[in-house]
UniProtKB/TrEMBL annotation:
Segments passing through the bilayer: none
Signal peptide per UniProt: 1-22
Protein name in UniProt: Atypical odorant-binding protein 68
GO cellular component: extracellular space
UniProt keyword terms in alphabetical order: Disulfide bond, Secreted, Signal
Lineage of the organism: Eukaryota, Metazoa, Ecdysozoa, Arthropoda, Hexapoda
SUPFAM superfamilies: Insect pheromone/odorant-binding proteins (SSF47565)
Annotated localization: Secreted
Family, similarity comment: Belongs to the PBP/GOBP family.
Gene Ontology MF: a single term: odorant binding
Length: 267
């Protein structure tokens, strides 16, 4: 049986190809504008969205997590500070201390609303229509891994070996990681890691994080590695081991998931 989805997908793809030439190298990366996020939420929630609409924006834009219960600093990329404003980060953080942290955690929607309010009024002007990178979820990562293992024709036995011996220890494992990173829109052979996207993905937000990833990659690049080894070692040494972030793409458990059919949950 041909599903509805299979019928509409090709035309959607075609519109995508025609309409988003700039995005033609994005592979599976998700880009969303703030207006797009608002539109998504308004189609899920009743008109006005009640007091929970800001939390919905955060969930769709992946800058909100109920456990953390304050906006991720990554939401800052949707706001453009005034170039003369030296104090917007401190004002925003003060505002969050004053208006978000005192709200009880079970009033999660109010915490989300107050948190976004701080960005609206203290951080900068909203960048409403530029599509920006939205972090990849574990479920999407799993799918990208699966697609890559098919494209690279890796057998279940090979996958098991990669999982057991470590992905950087074989050409197959390194090439699988390279494929994943390229397809997730986080890496290219010619330009290396997309540091701004890794900053969103791994919550490494400050100049020190970006500089450390850049320096680490430049050092690896001098070693004349093949493209797969360079990509896998970049991930291992510059992203996964980076002390200034919490890398939340767990390639090892994605590999195990691929071998066992188990899909990891979490951020
Ligand atoms: C922001 O706050 C920190 C710590 O409170 C302070 O050290 C820093 O100077 C402040 N930055 C600005 C630009 O005021
Ligand atoms: C490796 O990457 C470079 C770009 O830096 C590219 O020119 C070259 O074709 C790639 N080699 C392979 C084998 O894909
Ligand atoms: C929320 O963040 C916590 C702490 O970083 C993490 O353990 C948890 O998996 C996240 N939850 C979701 C649903 O992403």
């Amino acid at each position: 049986m041909v599903s509805h989805r299979e019928l509409i997908l090709p035309s959607l793809l075609w519109i995508g190809i025609l309409g988003l030439q700039a995005a033609s190298l994005q592979h599976s990366a998700t880009l969303k504008s703030f207006n797009g996020i608002i539109n998504e939420c308004s189609s899920y929630l009743s008109p006005g969205g009640g007091s929970c609409s800001d939390r919905c924006l955060g969930l769709v834009g992946r800058f909100w997590n109920d456990t953390v219960a304050r906006p991720s600093v990554s939401v800052g990329r949707f706001y453009r500070p005034d170039p003369c404003d030296q104090d917007y980060i401190n004002r925003t953080l003060d505002c969050i201390c004053d208006t978000v942290l005192p709200v009880p955690r079970n009033d999660i929607c109010q915490r989300a609303s107050n948190g976004l309010q701080c960005y609206r009024y203290q951080y900068g002007r909203l960048v409403a229509s530029d599509p920006l990178y939205v972090g990849i979820t574990p479920l999407q990562s799993q799918q990208v891994f699966q697609e890559c293992s098919q494209m690279l024709s890796l057998s279940p036995v090979q996958l098991q070996q990669i999982a057991q011996s470590g992905y950087s220890n074989s050409p197959e494992g390194s090439c699988l990681v390279r494929c994943y990173l390229i397809r997730a829109g986080l890496y290219t052979d010619s330009h290396g890691p997309d540091i701004a996207r890794f900053a969103v993905q791994c919550e490494g937000y400050d100049d020190a994080y970006e500089a450390s990833v850049g320096k680490c990659y430049q050092e690896l690049k001098l070693k004349q590695l093949d493209n797969c080894t360079l990509a896998a070692r970049m991930y291992d040494e510059c992203i996964q081991s980076n002390k200034l972030s919490n890398s939340n793409i767990d390639i090892v458990s994605l590999l195990v998931g691929l071998v066992t059919g188990f899909i990891p949950v979490g951020k």
